[in-house]
Each structure stands twice: as C-alpha cells, then as structure tokens.
Specification:
single chain, mainly alpha, Hypothetical protein af1432, globular
C-alpha cells in the first residue's frame, strides 16, 4: 500500500512541472494513474481510453470550448481513479453488491476527487470535478451529492454518458455486452432521468463516431 501510495503521489507531482513540460507531464501522469487503476479493477485500459475519447467527442458536438480536446479527454480518463482506494473484495466481486458494499464502492467518487483536487494542472482540476460528479443523475437520484440538472457540472454530465454507454457495450463479469442498438435504446429511455437530454441526443446522434472510437480502442481478448 505504501509503495502504491508513493507511486500515485509521484504521478500527481508530475502534473505540477513547468509549463513547457506540462502537456507531456499530464499525459504521463494520467497513464500512470490509469495503469494503477487497471491493475486493481475489472475496468480495462481500453474502456478508460474510450471514455476519454467519447467525452472529447461530445464536448465538440456540444460546441463546449471550456477546455481543449486533450484536456477533457485526459480528465475524463480519470473518472474512476478513486476506485484505487476501494478494497479488492468489493471492487473485484463477481456477483451483485449488497447495500453495505454498494455504499463503500460509491465512496470512489469522493476518493477520486480528493486524490486530484489539490493540483494546479487544468487536467487535474477538471479530473477532480469529473471524478466527483460523473455518477450524479439529471433527476437528482445519483451520488454523492444528489445534484440535479444544471447543478451537475457539465464535464460530469458529459463523462457520465460516455462511461455508461461504454459499460453497456462492454463485457462485464456479471453480464455480457449489449449490442450497439440495444445500448442506444436503453440509454434513450434514461433521457431526462439519468442523462442530460440535450447532451444524450447529440451523443446518440453520432453512431459512426461512436463505432469508430470503439473500433480504434478494442478490449484485449
């Protein structure tokens, strides 16, 4: 645990380097954090890459220019970094979680935020916001703060859509992947409940781009 903590601290510190080296340092640090997460959870590096690309795609489709494509992509890749702090017995459990286990795993949102929130890098700051807010729901039924609609940071709303879509279209230990069209149908039923309806409409309206991202970053068999 001490060795892992030191490695994570080193990765975060890399995001604090001079401006000239900042972009390379950001990419390197995100890669290290992603590697640490994939060692500990069922989430693959390909899943994390796809979520980042989905976020950048959706931000572009929504004409959001608060960040560069690289910044939102890298920040969204850190959405579940807090899972590093969740016990293996829960994180890797093949069956459904009970209420107590669910409460523990939901802590990863705040853990991820705390891991990233003290940084000065734009990617780190945005990643902290996404880590905290990507499990909030448009209808207020999410966690950890039960935010609703526009009170949810837009970066969190963007990352949530990509994260859920990729989860639905990927194999998990507890269920097989849905076909693309079935995933689109399931997500559509959650418009205005789980997801920002305008953002979801833009996302699902770009099937060729979604398929291209999935093809470019396949899971390793």
């Amino acid at each position: 645990m001490l060795r892992r903590t030191a490695a994570l601290r080193e990765a975060v510190d890399r995001l604090e380097l001079t401006e000239a080296n900042a972009r390379d340092a950001e990419r390197d640090a995100v890669d290290r954090l992603v590697s640490a997460l994939t060692i500990r959870s069922e989430e693959t590096g390909a899943h994390i890459q796809r979520v980042g690309r989905f976020a950048a795609m959706l931000a572009r489709l929504a004409s959001i220019d608060l960040w560069s494509d690289d910044e939102i992509c890298l920040a969204a890749m850190l959405h579940d970094v807090g899972k590093i702090g969740i016990p293996d017995s829960i994180l890797m459990k093949p069956g459904p979680l009970d209420a107590h286990e669910r409460e523990i795993i939901e802590r990863h949102s705040r853990l991820g935020n705390r891991m990233l929130a003290d940084g000065r890098s734009p990617v780190l700051i945005l990643g902290a916001e996404i880590a905290l807010s990507h499990h909030e729901r448009w209808d207020g039924g999410g966690y950890p703060d039960h935010l609703a609609e526009q009170d949810i940071p837009i970066a969190g709303r963007i990352a949530a859509i990509g994260d859920v879509f990729d989860a639905l279209t990927s194999d998990r230990v507890y269920r097989p992947a849905l076909e693309f069209d079935d995933a689109v149908t399931e997500m559509s039923t959650e418009s205005g409940r789980h997801f920002d309806p305008e953002l979801l409409h833009l996302f699902l309206g770009a099937p060729d781009e979604l398929q291209a991202i999935r093809t470019a970053y396949p899971d390793q068999r």
